[in-house]
Amino acid sequence: MVMPSQSRIRTKKTRAVGIPAVDLSLGRPELSELILRASEEHGFFKITNHSVPKRTVSRLEEEAAEFFVKPMSEKQQAGPAAPFGYGCKNIGPNGDMGELEYLLLHSDPISIAERSTTICSDPSNFSSVVNDYIGSARQLTCVILDLLAEGLWLSDKYALSGLVRDRQSDSLLRINHYPPAKDVKNSGRDRDRGSGRVGFGEHSDPQILTLLWSNDVEGLQMCQHDGLWIPVPPDPNAFYVMVGDALQALTNGRLKSVRHRAMANSPKPRLSMVYFGAPRLNAWISPLPELVSPQSPALYRPFTWGEYKKAMYSLRLSDSRLDLFKIQSSNKIASRIDCIV
Ligand SMILES: C=C1C[C@]23C[C@@]1(O)CC[C@H]2[C@@]12CC[C@H](O)[C@@](C)(C(=O)O1)[C@H]2[C@@H]3C(=O)O
Ligand SMILES: O=C(O)CCC(=O)C(=O)O
Ligand SMILES: [Fe+2]
User: Fold this and answer.
1) Domain at 6-280, CATH class
2) d(CA 91, CA 83)
3) Pocket test for ligand 2, best of 200, 202, 204 (most atoms within 8 A of CB)
4) CB of 232 closer than 6 angstroms to any ligand 2 atom
5) What does the pLDDT look like over 14-49, one tens digit per residue?
6) Whether ipTM exceeds 0.95
């Protein structure tokens, strides 16, 4: 039986601390070390001087703004999000709610072309803008994964990026729109005290790696190891990178997926565009051999990405899905003994 995860919000306080930032124009060995360290310590960092053209981002931002400003009856023609399409307030199939509306799209160009007809009056232009953004986001994700593979000394340099680059990858794009908070009590200084409206509740992303862009409106918060929520300052010139559950399993727990949430307390509307890099449905996820040893026995049993998705859709947003795939400690001791004798 799956127990819902314990809420990590031990206090309502949030604290502004430094967010690790990585300048992608730095040289190779330094870059892979920085990215690995940030991923190990925080499961989260900011990428500056990235390769995604400004125009690729601004074109999608404009398309999104044009869509979300439409009357509800028109937007609903692109819904419900089950799981793909337009969604309003409902997140996933198990009763999670938030102060947001969104478009959830699969990265497959055929699926995008089909969906576009319900989203925009010029579907071929919309498709091309979305495909362009996904292509750039995938490319940047793969660069980061290759740097991680280098930092982890993996013998197959493309062991991680190959999963996301796969033509049949199950990667997604989500465009979230958080309406402005009209209630002044929930905006301004109160939002820093942790009060207010939850836009997207606490969760970790299930995939391998997440690339998040947002407009210049705050809202994103990360959960630190001590349970404190730290506000992440928005930066439209950068991307935020988050380790997902699948990468935690692949690295045998060395990298940890990060719990995060988005608050909707700003008097301005927040827009986020989130690319989730995932493998194909029948890809196997299991701790990479280089990261398993008698001292670090496998923490997770092998599972397919499709199997993981099935489990994820049966759970609530804040549940710790990866716990379902943990090897019990008695088995771990047995496998350690097997290694020794
Ligand atoms: C409540 C749910 C929504 C979600 C699927 C799930 O059952 C649990 C994980 C949720 C999440 C969080 C990150 C991404 O936004 C997302 C697309 C994903 O892959 O996992 C959503 C899912 C969703 O909205 O369908
Ligand atoms: O909008 C945000 O800043 C966070 C969104 C998010 O976590 C998600 O879409 O999975
Ligand atoms: Fe997320």
Assistant:
1) mainly beta
2) 9
3) 200
4) no
5) 444 678 999 999 888 899 999 999 999 999 999 999
6) yes
